Amino acid sequence: MTLCRVIDLNRRHFLAGAGASVLAAGAPRLAHATPTGQRLVADEGRAVLTTGRGSLPVDAWSYGGSVPGPLLRYRRGERLDVTFENRLAEPSAVHWHGLRPPNGMDGAAPLTQAPVPPGETFRYAFDLDDAGTYWYHTHFRGWNQQDRGLYGVVIVDEETPPAVDRDLLLVLDDWVLTPAGTLSTDFGNMHEWSHAGRLGNLATINNAADADVPVAAGERIRLRLVNVANAQIFALMFDWHDPVIIAEDGNSVTPWALGADELLLGPGQRVDLIVDAVGAPSSRHAIRAYTLRDEVNMGAFVYADREGGTGLAGTEIAPLEGNARPSLDLAGARRLELRMEGGAMGGMGRAMMGGRMMGMRELMLHRRIWAFNGVAGDMDAPLASLKRGETVVVDIINDTAFPHAMHLHGMHFREIARNGAPIEDGAWRDTSLMASDDRVEIAFVAETPGRWMLHCHMIEHQAGGMMTFLEIEGDEA
Ligand code: C2O
Ligand code: CU
Fold first, then answer.
1. Is the CB–ligand 1 distance for residue 137 below 6 Å?
2. How confident is the model at residue 425 (pLDDT cuts 50, 70, 90)?
3. Does residue 136 sit in the same domain as residue 204?
4. Residue 222: CB within 6 Å of ligand 1?
5. Residue 237 C-alpha to ligand 2 middle, in angstroms?
6. 304-355 pLDDT per residue, tens
7. How far apart are CA 236 and CA 30, in angstroms?
8. What is the number of alpha carbons within 13 Å of residue 201 lying toward its C-beta?
């Protein structure tokens, strides 16, 4: 577990859940200006990274010519209507991570739709019932496509957003760069697949290593953090500032202060923070992170030379307007077990694949080195068939030497216990971060008919066998 020494995933709040300005470096502007009938074109192109040594264009794949892709911003109750056009040389599909569309709009190719062939289009349209910070990304060969840059952010505004002086979006990624400064295209690397996944050697916020986050003393800031990395976990530290967490994975939580802890963000997860700018004019306060590889300087709050704000800093922080969530019937819940196995140092000897038991050697030939309940990524039978409206508890056991980020499509769940300790009032989430040997119980209501993926969001683990799905009976909307 050398890779995991840097991050302590068992910190208390795990349960509770270079000069480039972030506004300049590929950062989407947070204006409310999303037209309906938007076109989202995936194509090969470039991302310009800002490193300590200046700007570095790398070959990337993107939506709409930018990495991250265009910010899609709506108000709760509006309708997303996006026509995806695939100009790549390979099939693709778009998944709306954390949003709750009808199954046919989920983009989980090939489970919920055929992947969109090169040159073709697919129209995604559904109502946005939930406010919060979400994201979209390719859901086809993501270990290649997502790493190259096929992702973007969706913000759905509350009817009455909290009063802040700035609302900033920080998209966290990491890149595997070669010594020559190009994006490494070593995507199928079996060492990465069987260990922690593809971990970059350049961590960025909005494409900038050591990004400047502009603030003015006295301001109240809403920070939206999105981890779009294939496999990286960030444990963030905010030098002297005391962020207050107001939402996790888009869902409102009772505001809680981070205090001296690190803020953990696994792949696919989001967090919304309120940060009061308590520094002095012209000061600079580093935003640092432990990752699964290093301790890195992610950026800094860079203070303007004069004060700003409208007197909000220091005032009480009210909870966000929450999203409607069903009530859980834990006493009558149906219980499922999901045991995660495999990977390096995992001792998995064999698993089912394609309806046949295979030894590790044969599994590796098929690039399957992880399994759920002894099945290595077969998607022909669901983990369970569920009745609409029933409460389901999935007891997830991480019997591997690595952390994982378990993501459920289509519904949000609550973590109700971790390692035997009940969690009262856990946040609603769509992605749960688990340390090696953790055991987490999640509970949700089977709300929407269709086939919903449940997989590790370390994309190399998913592709290597850590995926399954749940089927919910009923007619699709
Ligand atoms: Cu964010 Cu199945 O994905
Ligand atoms: Cu994993």
1. yes
2. confident
3. yes
4. no
5. 24
6. 999 999 999 999 999 999 999 999 999 999 999 999 999 999 989 999 998 8
7. 23
8. 9
**How confident is the model at residue 36, as a pLDDT?**
60
Task: Say if 327 falls within a structural domain.
Answer: no
Which ligand 1 atom is the nearest neighbour of the CA of 135? 1
Q: What is the pLDDT of residue 198?
A: 97
Residue 422 burial (CB count, 10 A)? 9
User: How far does the centroid of ligand 1 lie from the alpha carbon of residue 193, in Å?
Assistant: 17
Protein residue closest via CA to atom 3 of ligand 1: 97
Of all residues in the chain, what percent are helix, strand and coil, respectively (each to 5)? 5, 45, 50
Sheet of 166-175, strands arranged across: 202-205, 166-175, 220-227, 270-276, 244-248, 251-257
User: Is residue 318 situated within a structural domain?
Assistant: no
Q: Per the domain annotation, does 20 fall within a domain?
A: yes
Q: Tell me if 268 CB under 6 Å of ligand 1.
A: yes
Ligand number nearest CA of 462 is 2
User: Are 343 and 265 in the same domain?
Assistant: no
**Would you say the CB of residue 407 lies under 6 angstroms from ligand 1?**
yes
Ligand 1 within 6 A of CB of 457: yes
Decide which of 366 and 26 is more confident.
Answer: 366
Has this prediction a pTM greater than 0.90? yes
Taking the C-alpha atoms of residue 86 and residue 118, their distance in angstroms, rounded to an integer, is 5
Q: How many CB atoms lie within 10 A of CB 284?
A: 11
Q: With a 6 A CB cut-off, is 288 part of the ligand 1 pocket?
A: no
Q: Please state whether beta strands 350-353 and 356-359 pair in parallel, antiparallel, or not at all (unpaired).
A: antiparallel
452: containing domain: 334-472
Residue with CA nearest ligand 1 atom 1: 97
pLDDT in tens, 128-140: 999 999 999 999 9
Local confidence band at 475 (pLDDT 50, 70, 90 cut-offs): confident
Cβ(139) – ligand 1 distance below 6 Å: yes
Give SS3 for 13: helix
Q: Which two tokens stand for residue 35?
A: 């037209």
| Size of the chain in residues | 477
Q: Do 153 and 283 sit in the same domain of this protein?
A: yes
What 3 state SS string does 40-63 have?
Answer: EEEEEEEEEEEECCEEEEEEEEEE
- The answer on 372 and 253 residing in a single domain is no
Ligand 1 contact via 270 beta carbon (within 6 Å): no
- 406 occurs within a structural domain: yes
Residue 194 sits at φ, ψ, to 5 deg, of -90, -10
Structure tokens at 179: 């010594």
What is the CA(460)–ligand 2 centre distance, in A? 7
Ligand in closest contact with the CA of 452: 1
